[in-house]
């Protein structure tokens, strides 16, 4: 038993001696990296990656963001009388003497003697309404006059006869009085018959529509066969037959802002430019300043008469009026005024600014404004001729926004 135990101890000892422990020895010649350096580089990499990703996102966002479509205008110079104007206003050409010629009678339009553009004289027959019934009434009224005349003649003879017989006693005073009453009644009936004739004449004459003054037919408002009536009393009838205007009374009605009305004086020289003929300037003068203001628009109406007109000037044409100052003509020719559309001017932080377009983006530019010259405003500083600006810029527009001109 002891022998076997000693054998086992001998075997175990030899096994422990045979184990190689060299692998557990520390190799002092081998170099290793500090344990925290890799983590530090990784941390810096993440710190740099985040702003890089943000900048890349902003760049892509800027490229793919759609441009805002806007309307634009260009700053430009005004010269000559346009630059000399102390004030510019817009308005329309109107005829001071103008009428919608209507019928006094009701009926079907039977004759129309004019077309648009025709010139007519005062009293000329423009149109005729069907008048057979009115003509018959006039004939009947005239016949009633003859009946009343005959009755009055018989009553007069009877009265005179009884008046001669009264002294001889062949008649009585009562019969004479009755004959006198019949005679006076007959005379009154004759007067009524004459009045009926005059009434029928007026009714008949009302079927003829005449020109109230010398003028030109502007529009034809009814056609042959249509029903016409005074004041268009029926929804299926016409009121006016034609619209007539005296072309020698043409003038311009222009609204001037209340804040600028002090610049306008009666008899002040003006230049009238029609939008249809922008290169033609008609001389004129301020004829009247209407003594009331339009509360809703804060304007005062002025009336400007033409010194001379031609066939180009037509009612309802839009016009621009330059209210001229008193500066010498030589100075006027040398001066040029930089202007831009007033719709391009907006306010930011209490200052007048425009948004100028440069390379597809807007730049907020502060400006100094001068005179209001109608649809444009004088620019004293901040812009140059040829600068393109945004019209009616949105309230949220800021410098750097991308824009694109709309068609």
Question: What is the topological layout?
Answer:
Layout: H1 2-17, H2 37-64, E1 68-70, E2 72-74, E3 76-79, H3 80-84, E4 85-95, E5 98-102, E6 107-112, E7 119-120, E8 125-129, H4 132-165, H5 173-205, E9 208-210, E10 215-220, E11 227-228, E12 240-245, E13 250-257, E14 269-274, E15 281-294, E16 299-306, E17 318-324, H6 329-334, E18 336-341, E19 346-348, E20 351-358, E21 361-366, E22 368-373, E23 376-381, E24 388-390, E25 403-405
Notes on the protein architecture:
The chain has about 400 residues and is an alpha+beta fold. The chain folds into four domains: about 70-80 and about 335-405, Beta Barrel (conserved putative lor/sdh protein from methanococcus maripaludis s2 fold), CATH 2.40.420.20; about 80-95 and about 245-325, Beta Barrel (Elongation Factor Tu (Ef-tu), domain 3); about 100-130 and about 205-235, OB fold (Dihydrolipoamide Acetyltransferase, E2P) (Beta Barrel); about 130-205, Helix Hairpins, CATH 1.10.287. The protein has six helices and 25 strands. It has helices at about 1-15, 35-65, 80-85, 130-165, 175-205, 330-335; strands at about 70, 70-75, 75-80, 85-95, 100, 105-110, 120, 125-130, 210, 215-220, 225-230, 240-245, 250-255, 270-275, 280-295, 300-305, 320-325, 335-340, 345-350, 350-360, 360-365, 370-375, 375-380, 390, 405. A six-stranded antiparallel beta barrel has the order 4-13-16-15-14-17. The chain has a four-stranded antiparallel beta sheet with strand order 3-18-23-22. Strands 5-12-10-7 form a four-stranded antiparallel beta sheet, with no helix packed on it. The longest helix has about 35 residues, at about 130-165. The N and C termini lie far apart (about 115 Å).
